[in-house]
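Re: weekly structure request thread

Next one in the queue (73 aa):
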Amino acid sequence: YSKSRTTYVLLGILPGIFGFPGIHNLYAGYQSRGLIQLLGTILTCWIGYFPMIIWTIVEVCTVTEDADGNPMA
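Done, posted below.
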């Protein structure tokens, strides 16, 4: 089934603002990317937050398919 692009964008923006980037990738099926973003933020005591949030913004603007290659509706 196709995932919602709106949900993907909201999961990128809202948790990212509160210090937990990567949740959007877990939703889309990109487990490794999501864990890298999430753990990269947490394990660096939020020093890695700014690079991860930039990465999140770029993905929210460019990713249009989930991990299985299905377009997000």
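Helices lie at 5-17, 23-28, 31-42, 49-62. The chain is about 60% helix and 0% strand.
Next request, please.
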